[in-house]
Structures are given as structure tokens and as C-alpha cells.
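The material for today's practical consists of a large collection of protein records. There is nothing in a record beyond a sequence line and a structure line. As an example, a complete record with its sequence and its C-alpha cells follows:
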Amino acid sequence: MLKNFLLLSAAILFGVTPASAPAHPGSGTGTPQETKPSATIYVKPAPASTQKLYAVDCAMCHGDKGDGKTDLATGMQLTLGDWTKPKTLADKTDQELFNAIRNGKDKMPAEGEGRAKDDDVRNLIIYIRNMSKGTAAEAPKPAN
């Protein structure tokens, strides 16, 4: 009898709890809040896999450092932006970059979902944006 009571109590507890929780975290009202799409995509970076993805799929045209000066780009008569300069991507949202990478742009092939998941592409955007911060990572100059 006690066993049946405990099972019934557990079933009621688990059945009622999700219905009483807010539908949208932080809203407290149980109704979804309207959200605007963010211009910036936040994903925890995965440096090793992101560097590998960039090296395999991007570097041959955009260069190892992202300066866009490669023999392949020159041979294809491409003028690519220099991602080592902050102003190059300053007017591009992460969503615009995501769309260009996922769907391709001009002569750039699409990075299909079979090759990279959405989070991989988002991490790639973070990686590309950080190329312009490379000057901060240089070794300090010795003091005179």
C-alpha cells in the first residue's frame, strides 16, 4: 500500500511540475517573451576543431593568418578582405558572416551542414574575428 502511494505521489509530482514552470526562462509569466535576433552569436569557442576547420576549408584562399593574400586567391582573381585589420569586418554582423559561410558567396563555396554543424560555423566566426586581435598577442618588445 505504501509503495503504491509513493509511486502515485511521484507520478503526480513529475506530471504537475513542468506545467507550473515558466515557459520562458526568466519571464515568470509562463508566456514566451519576444526576442530580437542578436547581431552577435555567442558560442563557447572550440579552438582545436575550429583551427582545423579553418585550415582545411578556409586558409587556402583566405590565408593562414586571414590576410586574404594567397596564390590561389590571386590565381582566381579574388580580392579578399584582410581579416587581420579590425575595420574589415566591423560593419558585418555575425549573422551575415554565418550566412556567407553556410550558403557561400560569389566564388566561395558553401560550408554545408554535412561538413560543419551550426556551432562549428559560429565558432569559426569567433575565430575569424579574433584574427584582427592578433597584434595584441604578439610578444612584448624588450625594454631599452
Residues 2-20 form the longest helix (19 residues).
